[in-house]
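Table 4 source record.
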Amino acid sequence: MTTRQTFLSSLVILLVLGGAVLCALRWQAWFGMPEEPVWQGSKTAYTFHCFGDDSLPGFVQDEQGYWQDTLLPDTLDILLLGDVHSLLTHADYDTLASRVPHADCYAQLGDWLERGYEYYAQQLAFALKGTRLDSIPVISCPGNHEYHKGLRRPLSPLWNEMFCHPKNGFAGFENTTYYVDFKGLRFIALDTEGLRWLHDYTRLNTWLTGVIRQASDRFVVVIMHHPVYSASRGRFNPGVYLSCVAPLREADLVIAGHDHQYARQLPFVEMTSTTTEHTPRFRHYHERQGVTSVYYQQLSLWGDTLRMRTYRLADGELYDECFLTR
């Protein structure tokens, strides 16, 4: 055996052994789905009002296809949550509804469920039941916890049972990547966990560039689970960055979760509503960064002004605020 062959054989052996060790250390994180809990109580429907429905409470569509609030048509208020992980209770949702009493709809940034199991869907349905949020539309994007772990990493079948979002995304991402048009605002939701192959990233880039530019003089707000710029250590997503950073710089607000931190460097914002478990990564270009609290947001649109307010979940105190005008 030549020296070259010996080197190559040794390299292959090292790679195989290294891969085996790595898989052994990370098996639970990559492939280990926790056992599904059994829901013990009575069951309730876990379908939500979504902008893919033909009609919605409190909204009508005008001749241009824009969703219009029927009660206060000149304003739009959106409550926004991120990374709930099935931890908010009925009392929490009641409190949020009372703090944003004029919310026309609400949005969430993925990882609403701890896992894509019926147990957590029932838990969410009972937590929301009877609150005002149960009667207004939701805009949602899946996070990694709505996907099952494994070699294929499929989206939980519950997602399509729970949500009927607009089917205006690109092929293969119907009901998870889409946009909702309001008068003065295009609201885009991206599924960043479902990206698997190179053509997924390139098609996302092409689609996203088009829908942002087609918004014309309207504001553009994007929600996504994985951030373009990570505010936590070891959480960088190169595929999301390379495919999304250029088109998203043309948006007015890009709000992401996943990293369980709060950080703002407009147009990019990260937010969490339940935990701050990951190690923060301080960056000099962040205009605001909070690492010890969890938050919710209120987006308000009136006329040519879009306002983002960030509140502490614990006491409702205003933490951050910014205004965008056209």
